[in-house]
Design a protein that fits this description.
Blueprint (H helix, E strand, L loop, with lengths): L1 H13 L3 H9 L14 H5 L4 H24 L1 H4 L3 H16 L12 H11 L1 H18 L2 H20 L3 H16 L1 H9 L19
Length: 209
């Protein structure tokens, strides 16, 4: 029973879209209406509001970390195993991708996945973050950095901890992240992908209803 309610709680935590919340708080357009139309930190940055983008990044990462940290922190008290922690990791990630609070229109999961990895192990998250930063700095493409980091994340986990239930959760997140970036892959191959920091005129102010 503990496994069920913890998984559901993790999904609900993941369903909080900080891109939408922060855009409303900072008075900018809904990120689902401009740029890539993805409710994530990179698209919020296209509004030109760096503070909103940073808060979105922190919020999306923090919810992934929190769900996993709580599961690990209370693992003994709740008598749950590693398989439950793996389910919690996947559930909070799925909540971000398909949030129940926002008609199942969510982001691509990069920041939330990083938060999950940091929750599982700080060194795992740090290694993946360094990979993302290196690729992003070299090529200025957030999507490319995310894809490369997703490719290496399961490798890092296996290297650090071997084959455990959480490894399959990391594999699942990496596969879903690649799936959510399918359009970006096409744009990268066609040379049409937007670089980090590019702005969208549609995000100057919220659209009137």
């Amino acid at each position: 029973m503990n496994t069920v309610w913890m998984t559901v709680a993790a999904y609900l935590i993941g369903s909080i879209s900080f891109a939408v919340v922060m855009s409303k708080l900072f008075g900018i357009a809904d990120p689902r209406t401009y740029g890539s139309k993805n409710p994530g930190a990179t698209n919020v940055l296209r509004s030109g509001n760096k503070a909103a983008a940073i808060m979105t990044l922190i919020g999306d990462g923090a919810k992934g970390w929190l769900a996993v940290w709580l599961a690990i922190r209370y693992q003994d008290q709740l008598q749950i195993g590693d398989a439950t922690i793996a389910l919690v990791a996947i559930a909070v990630f799925l909540g971000h991708l398909w949030p129940v609070f926002f008609r199942f229109v969510g982001g691509k999961g990069v920041a939330t996945a990083l938060g999950v990895l940091l929750g599982l192990n700080p060194w795992l998250g740090l290694a993946t973050l360094v990979t993302w930063l290196a690729v992003a700095y070299a090529f200025r493409y957030s999507s490319l950095a995310a894809l490369v980091a997703a490719l290496f994340a399961p490798f890092y986990y296996g290297l650090l901890f071997g084959v455990e239930p959480q490894l399959f959760a990391v594999f699942a997140m990496s596969a879903l992240l690649a799936f959510r970036h399918s359009k970006n892959i096409s744009n990268l191959l066609a040379g049409k992908e937007s670089r980090i920091g590019s702005k969208s005129k549609e995000a100057v102010k919220p659209r009137k209803k």
